Amino acid sequence: MSSKILVTGGLGFIGSHTVVALQEKGFEVVIIDNLSNSSLNVLEGIVSISQKKPAFEQIDLREKEAVKKFFEKYTDIDGVIHFAASKAVGESVGNPLLYYENNLSTLVYLLQELQEKPKANFIFSSSCTVYGQADELPINENAPVKKAESPYGNTKQIGEEIIADTCKVATGLKAISLRYFNPIGAHPSAAIGELPIGTPQNLVPFITQTAIGRRQELSVFGDDYPTRDGTCIRDYIHVMDLAQAHVVALERLIEGKEESNYEVFNLGTGKGNTVLEVINTFQESTGAKLPYKITERREGDVIAAFADTEKANNVLGWNASRSLSEALKSAWKWQKEVSKDEEN
């Protein structure tokens, strides 16, 4: 019998790709999503790729009773992958209480239910933002967690602490926090991808929306950083590689391969690219022209961040295999598909 996995925020960008990856490995999936930053159309995209329809529950995880009722209905959940959270750094600065409620109370309510089970496996969607501007590059899992630059970043730090503290006392609970670097791209079918509501907060959706003509030009925030071309460096990882890492991490817990009941892994490519390198690679890979201008630095941006992937490669047994060019081509294919749908 296949394991039944709950994916919260399963209609979001990374969540939807992970649902596909889970179904391809034979897992039975139940999605919880409140549709605050996603669409039911994504469910159709998942089905078109995998030919399987995951169970779907529209639930707001901030409602404690709704969470309790879910676990009363689905008593056979073998694992939880928790994506559901607000993630815009700027919005978190302007509305911190929304972020603390949405990102932390939901985590607490899930863990309260899981700690009642004799066995529970939990994967947490964390972020490299916990490191801030790291003292050394590449960044490994032993790098100090710096004071958060935003309420969003703080919720990831506190979230990890909540899970670690719970694992100390909940003997049946095993958990892994996955600290992502910069997820980009889309499924090669272009049936699902990144669909930001409003103005994109991330570089690649802004690139594709500018190239398609939805945005006038792309702003590059600063070209006077101490990097090879003056622009910030990030570790851009294909969302399909990221999705597959969640499956590997979950299998690690289900199969009992973990070294302790709480582990942390960085997920990245191990390679940093500057903003201008991403722009140039996009233009070379797609043939699309991209108008951009250099503007002032943006507050809160770290100079450089890229992963030391040794632990994920050797301990987790996972490698990022897709190139920056491949990721950007898939994001462009997805953008053209979205624009086609908008025109119809």
From TrEMBL:
Indicate yes or no for the key word rRNA-binding: no
Tell me what reaction this enzyme catalyses.
UDP-alpha-D-glucose = UDP-alpha-D-galactose
| Cofactor field | NAD(+)
Keyword terms of this UniProt record: Carbohydrate metabolism, Isomerase, NAD
Which protein is depicted? UDP-glucose 4-epimerase
**InterPro entries, sorted:** NAD(P)-bd_dom, NAD(P)-bd_dom_sf, UDP_G4E
Q: Where is the NAD(P)-binding domain?
A: 6-329
**Keyword presence, NAD:** yes
Partners and quaternary state? Homodimer.
- Which EC number(s) does UniProt give? 5.1.3.2
Per the record, the similarity remark reads: Belongs to the NAD(P)-dependent epimerase/dehydratase family.
User: Which portions of this protein are annotated as coiled-coil regions?
Assistant: none
Q: In which pathway does it act?
A: Carbohydrate metabolism; galactose metabolism
